[in-house]
Design brief:
Elements: H1 2-15, H2 29-49, H3 54-71, H4 76-87, H5 90-112
Helix pairs in contact: 2-3, 2-5
């Protein structure tokens, strides 16, 4: 009986995934979610404005990125490293993008009313 319990315990422990800690140089899921939302809004504005004037749209997008970086006290490298980290953890990235889409949908609903 003890052997059976020991084997069962080993199998149960083997099935659990260890909790992975986010490295200190990576943005938190909440912060990254907020940044991604702002980035996608900026890129959507770029797509809308590029037909009018590509140069102005590119400048506006660059300014939007700089504003986002300044607002969150990050730089392009921080964002790139964070995106690379979450790309290696697709389940976390999927959850983040689900939240981003939900928040954008709520904002759209509010604007449509």
């Amino acid at each position: 009986m003890k052997i059976l319990l020991s084997i069962l315990s080993v199998f149960l422990l083997a099935c659990t995934s260890p909790k992975t800690e986010i490295p200190t140089d990576i943005l938190s899921e909440t912060t990254f979610t907020n940044i991604l939302k702002e980035v996608h809004l900026a890129e959507a504005a770029f797509e809308l404005n590029k037909t009018k004037s590509m140069g102005n749209a590119k400048n506006a997008l660059a300014n939007s990125y700089q504003s986002i970086y300044k607002k969150h006290s990050i730089d392009e490298t921080d964002l790139s490293n964070t995106l690379s980290y979450y790309a290696l953890h697709p389940e976390k990235l999927e959850a983040i993008y689900t939240t981003v889409l939900e928040e954008l949908s709520k904002e759209r609903t509010t604007l449509n009313q």
